[in-house]
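R.M. (postdoc): so does anyone remember the format we settled on? I'll just put the structure tokens first.
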């Protein structure tokens, strides 16, 4: 019996990469544009694209019709034909009209940096939350560009730029997409409520939250795995992990905290993506401490640190206490390592060195723990005593009559939080027994 099933094999994207450099970019940092194109190559390879060649153009301003100049578009067409490429990837974001014009002229699929990053996220998303966030970002990107998609919407080739919701939106109209965006936002609101509940529970229980943030491929997941022995995916590639992972970590003093690995940042991170992943990225906002993991072996370390700081500022997390971890020092030359600070809120580390991991734990403990306070608590208030043990580091305790005298180390933030929680018991007793004793 003859089978009616037809298997369609997607043609692997073979691409030429294109970047436009304007005078503004040149004045900022001459090498940033070159690095950005190099990063685009890594992004393309991560997405499964075969990169055949790269091109750049120095131009006074962006061409509203072609993005690049007409002459450069002709050069690009010749290069595409010469390499038998089926895709052109641009390092900057294109308008719908520019995509349509370039597709008609070059007769290949046109992808910009934003769409490429969204495609990688579509491949990486595994949890329901991650899938919702990626689809929301993709549809938000697509909606204003519907009229300019041209062959992207008519081709059945699938592949890069059409993964995730891409394969289901080929025949949708604006109304359908708007309805879907509204539906996804509602689903995401439920995720936000769920996360908020978890945060409130953590606050009430006195558990510290520490967030790992950093540029993509800085080594955050490796650090999480080495510190907590977590079974997390670690690979030397961009956005190797997308969905956040939280694990418990016991500090040297015995206190347990929650350590969370967040999604990696990248320069020109799509705004739609930042908006869609706000619920996830807010883990950094709600954290008691941020560990900024830096790839100290990267030639673009300073730029990468700046990008992370900008995203944290956009999220409103820039005022949270931070420790900067200059990771991968084992890959640095002695001269490079010497230039990195190793004092105060900066540490030079390798995630694979046990001694460095201990220093990280000591730094976290030092930052989270603070001054010593002594609380006098009635012995029958076992739940209050338990709370003090959870929130702070208990150094000493002794029984005096019907009371427990507990000496505990707390930072100012946790001291204020503990004071608020203890006040909720409305115990009608006053402060006494010396100026450094708190009587409940």
């Amino acid at each position: 019996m003859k089978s009616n099933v037809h298997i369609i094999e997607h043609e692997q994207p073979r691409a030429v990469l294109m970047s436009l450099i304007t005078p503004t970019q040149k004045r900022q940092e001459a090498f940033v544009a070159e690095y950005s194109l190099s990063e685009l190559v890594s992004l393309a390879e991560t997405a499964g694209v075969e990169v055949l060649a790269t091109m750049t153009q120095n131009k006074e301003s962006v061409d509203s019709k072609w993005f690049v100049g007409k002459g450069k578009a002709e050069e690009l067409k010749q290069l595409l034909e010469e390499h038998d490429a089926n895709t052109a990837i641009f390092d900057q974001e294109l308008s719908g009209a520019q995509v349509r014009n370039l597709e008609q002229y070059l007769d290949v699929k046109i992808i910009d940096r934003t769409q490429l990053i969204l495609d990688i996220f579509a491949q990486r998303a595994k949890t329901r939350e991650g899938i919702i966030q990626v689809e929301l970002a993709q549809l938000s990107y697509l909606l204003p560009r519907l009229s300019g998609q041209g062959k992207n919407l008519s081709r059945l080739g699938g592949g890069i730029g059409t993964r995730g919701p891409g394969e289901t939106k080929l025949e949708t109209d604006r109304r359908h997409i708007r309805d879907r965006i509204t539906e996804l936002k509602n689903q995401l609101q439920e995720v936000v409520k769920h996360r908020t509940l978890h945060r409130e529970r953590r606050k009430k229980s006195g558990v510290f939250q520490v967030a790992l943030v950093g540029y993509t491929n800085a080594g955050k997941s490796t650090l999480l795995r080495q510190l907590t022995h977590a079974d997390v995916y670690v690979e030397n590639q961009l956005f190797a992990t997308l969905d956040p992972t939280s694990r418990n970590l016991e500090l040297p003093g015995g206190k347990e905290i929650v350590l969370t690995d967040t999604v990696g940042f990248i320069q020109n991170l799509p705004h739609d993506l930042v908006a869609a992943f706000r619920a996830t990225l807010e883990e950094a906002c709600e954290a008691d401490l941020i560990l900024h993991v830096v790839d100290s072996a990267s030639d673009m370390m300073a730029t990468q640190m700046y990008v992370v700081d900008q995203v944290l500022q956009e999220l409103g997390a820039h005022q949270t206490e931070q420790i900067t971890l200059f990771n991968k020092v084992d890959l640095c030359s002695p001269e490079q390592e010497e230039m990195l600070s190793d004092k105060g809120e900066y540490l030079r580390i390798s995630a694979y060195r046990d001694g460095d991991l201990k220093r990280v734990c000591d730094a976290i403990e030092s930052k989270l723990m603070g001054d010593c306070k002594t609380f006098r608590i009635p012995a029958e208030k076992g739940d209050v005593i338990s709370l003090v043990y959870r929130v702070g580091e208990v150094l000493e305790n002794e029984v005096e009559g019907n009371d427990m005298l507990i000496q505990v180390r707390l930072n100012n933030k946790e001291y204020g939080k503990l004071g608020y929680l203890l006040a909720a018991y409305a115990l009608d007793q006053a402060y006494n027994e010396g100026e450094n004793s708190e009587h409940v």
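R.M.: ...and that's the designed sequence above, right after the tokens. Also worth knowing: Confidence is low (pLDDT under 50) at residues 1-9, 148-157, 426-437. The chain has four domains: 14-117, 124-186, 207-367, 370-439.
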